[in-house]
## 1
Amino acid sequence: MQESSATPTTATGTPDTPPPAADSSAQPSRNGDLAPPTVSVRDLHKIYRSAGHDVHALRGVSLDIRRGSFTAIMGASGSGKSTLLHLLGGLAPPTSGTLLVEGRNLTQMSDGERTIFRRRRIGVIFQQYNLLPTLTARENVAMPMLIDGKPLEQFRNRVDELLTLVHLQHRLDHRPDALSGGEQQRVAIARALMNDPAIVLADEPTGNLDSKQAHEVWRLLQRIARENGRTIVMVTHEAHGAAFADEVIVVKDGQVVGTINAEGLGDAALVATGYQKLAG
Ligand SMILES: Nc1ncnc2c1ncn2[C@@H]1O[C@H](COP(=O)(O)OP(=O)(O)OP(=O)(O)O)[C@@H](O)[C@H]1O
Ligand SMILES: [Mg+2]
């Protein structure tokens, strides 16, 4: 792994570093506590084998993600950002490497175990929101529990709390077609929190939003990490969005080339300059 000396970076391990034990890899969190990382990745490779030729999408990625942090991932198109997010979320198995989420090794799980882990411990936010059009905001937020066979009545209070958290307490029974794009994405954020996830993964969550709505989503994700202690990982092309994260991981050609300490300051120029140095 290369790192730029000109840009602030954090130690993210090296490909030949063995995966740390969950409690021996403590590192300071924003508030100074020692906490094991929620996500620990070592020498992760992903090769897509498609007709005729292989695509080596990830080439030895190593990184740690602190509990309760907001992390952005930036990189050019095709650099492997979505692939990395899919692997973190257990959507696909890596070709090799180690991937621990809350100390559990996803690489050693069967497909069925990974599916259950994903449903119970991972929250996902998509660019297209992926809400069910015939369901109300409340019913969409409750979906992860309904899929798990649990009755809605049991979770009504939690659903309403989450919709209040995303400032949609006045839209509880609206269907997606009666909500703006920004409101729909906020329903999707509430839904991603429903199963009390270890990590929330967002792949370009503001790709379909205008600048004002995008800023609302970035600020909301930052607040959910800071005030609710959620661990959030967001892929974005936008320095303005990445600047709300604590740390920006820069990916190039399937490798982590460095990190930028954005510290959630909203300083897009700092992120853009750091990104240019690392990936330009
Ligand atoms: N299912 C697949 N089969 C074969 N190749 C794939 C598959 N998915 C992704 N790739 C290839 O892997 C590489 C990384 O793709 P990935 O989607 O992770 O990039 P990305 O950084 O998310 O790009 P973008 O910013 O355009 O979304 C690309 O070369 C892509 O063509
Ligand atoms: Mg992508």
Note: The domain at 67-91+118-279 is CATH 3.40.50.300 (Rossmann fold).
## 2
Amino acid sequence: MDIQKIHHVAYRCKDAKETVLWYKENLGMDFVLAIAEDRVPSTKANDPYMHVFIDAGHGNILAFFELPNSPEMGFDANTPDWVQHIAFEVPSVQVLEQTKEKLQAKGIDVVGITNHVLFKSIYFRDPNGHRVELAAPTATPEMNRKLDEVKWEMLEEWSKTRRAPKHAAWLHEEEFQA
Ligand SMILES: [Fe+2]
């Protein structure tokens, strides 16, 4: 396997400058690079763009395109709005709690803390409407081992029944009882 890491993932944004400043202010993520052209290098289409790279830690890059000549961005109407998201790892549940408070103090709506047992998460929207998750790892080696054992069975069962297999129901037991 020669894949090293995520080089970058690219989303569309409404305003490149607003987006760069928002990620710096709210998540401490640095602006790395701007690439802008009047033509698209891969397709040669005439379509001016600003492409910004933002540091997501450890060499991972979150990228955005601002495209002034396209209609305002929308989202896939057939997919529930909690589905498509990007999750960043934070070092601890304490950092997760602190960040939640900081975001809320700035008037940002935060969902969670949600307990996924393997990690705890909060969810919120960036200025473009993209759903962002912050996740603090809480898994033990034992949990990871148990899940690894059942992953193929779960996938097989799902592919036949389209109903959630119960092998790992322990993951969200507490969250659903809350
Ligand atoms: Fe997620």
Note: The CA atoms of residues 116 and 144 lie 13 Å apart.
## 3
Amino acid sequence: MSPATGASGLIRVEGSDEDAKTVFYTSLYRICERMVCLTEGDRYFSAYDGKVHTDTIPFYTDDWVWDTYHAAHPLRVLVESEKETDMLRSYIRMAEQLDPQWMPTFPEVTGDSRRMNCNHSGAAGTAYATGHKTHNGAIGVDINDKPLKNIPEIIDGLGYVSGVITTDGIDGCTPSVFFAHQPELHMSEEIWGDLADARLSFIAGGSHNAFENQEYETRDAIEKRYKVVSSLDEIPDKAKRVAYLPEKEEVCSIADGRGDFLPATTEYAIEFLDSHPENEKGFFLMVEGARIDKSCHNNDFGTAVLEVLDFDKAVEAAVRFAEKDGNTLVIITADHETGALSLRGKDNKSGKIKGLFASRGHTPIMVPLFAYGPMSLEFAGVQENTDVNHKIVNLLSSAAKDKRKKRD
Ligand SMILES: [Zn+2]
């Protein structure tokens, strides 16, 4: 190996245990994403005001902040401090050029995209639920905040019934993209308000306490459309629309004693939707193991494992039904990865493996997608999250048409 030159020649690496190596090489990978200099001959074009500027200080942009703040910027302070200063000056110039003035949160060549490196669950969930990419933070709306139809709304009236189950609050991103239309994921009151118009026959998630904290009008509107219960036993035999909102202690983390809420409710919902009087062609059910993400944000490997195992039981309930039914497709995937989790140090004797996190946020790592049942091959290979929606909608729409034809 030839000796390192330039800035990398200034780096001496110490420590050789496996953890240190993992962290070092992960960081090295992360510094591949770095700001680029747009200046040529003391001139540069800025997308922040759409103008060409004359400036002797180089102008840098396109900073993949979520990665670079961990490793590239701190490293450059040490080995290329002048360049780092120019980059920070570029941030100030971008802020000055923006109208209104705003420090870019995620500067790209094309301007500030104001997002995390990876989207919140709102945008990722909206892509799955509606088939449209949107701005970060959106709940079921497009980039101009116009409502987009979600799967339950699209298939409503085609002979299907729908349901949503989550271990998160009902106003959490993933459940809410299947019924709400709001420009901002933190608009909890408005999202609860949208529940009254949901095209869902079965809703379960946190919590009854949160429901009771809503305005009277919101609670009244929800109760006009749904039978609101806080346990499965309270659901009347002939109920058509149920909102099962357990006490908040029952939808806490599995480590804090959530018990079998997720698998038991999944099993119940499948039965409920399968035998629903308005179900002529089938049903759509979204089940979220929301606390896998939350435990990975906390870099809590033990809880993440417990949450995945619990989610696996809900998957089992779905697959068992699909096996028996023979005409049900089960899709298992995620809206994003959290924590850049990697596994290392497998020990066959003890059966142990170590989990290492390199981030506390959502990452752009590709997520797996598993599909079981008829047409599952449609979901093979690499695909856009929006494609998953298009495929589900196409399958359900054409199945609805086919059966209609047969009936005619
Ligand atoms: Zn998250």
Note: The longest helix spans residues 301-325.
## 4
Amino acid sequence: MDIGCGTGTDILLLAKWGFHRVVGLDVDGGAIGIARRRATRMRLASRATFIAGAAEDLEDHLAPSSVDVVLHTLVGNNLEDRYHAHFRSIARALKPRGLLVSCIRAWGYEENMGPGRVPPVAGMRRYFELSPGVSTHLAESGRAWPPHAPVVFWLGRPRKQRAAEESRRGRARGASRAPAPRGVARRRRAAPPAAGRPARSPPRTRRPARARSRRPG
Ligand SMILES: C[S@@+](CC[C@H](N)C(=O)[O-])C[C@H]1O[C@@H](n2cnc3c(N)ncnc32)[C@H](O)[C@@H]1O
């Protein structure tokens, strides 16, 4: 399954490579429409399902523990809210031995941190046991500055029990949209620099300890 599949490029490639059943989900209904038309053109529609909706509402579309692998590429940078519901829902949909493959773009002070030091977005660690994180570079030449952006990549194993319990409790309160657990701050990632805008000098000092404590877990 590809969360934030856009127009389905990756998921259709996986189907073409022989994956028997692939699912793409995206909040952008227009992109999902394109993905479905591409699947039909590529004669892959019988094996590729596309869902227009938010990952936070996966429970409406998929049975729990039904997915082997979730791709989550650069979606964390797009999340504005509902971080915990987002990752709880993904953890719930994955099989107990399922795998999350996730990457996010590092911004601002994070660009100077070692890959193992860049924290995942809120909620990810709560619902997934994560690898330490490795970084690579995303070529953004001509679209943004700097031309090569650091991207941090994690593998995650779902914390099934926590996701199931919290999901049950949330639904009992009628609140899959419940606020984040107490003491967990929501944080918006900084917007990417506008295309062509020169990069600001990277910060030379370490991030102050006070700001670090605001980072959600
Ligand atoms: C940077 S794009 C990544 C596209 C694709 N994964 C790729 O690698 O080309 C992020 C995508 O995530 C989708 N998205 C953002 N928030 C989402 C959410 N809460 N649930 C599902 N999709 C979401 C956006 O509509 C967008 O298509």
Note: Residues 29-41 form the longest helix (13 residues).
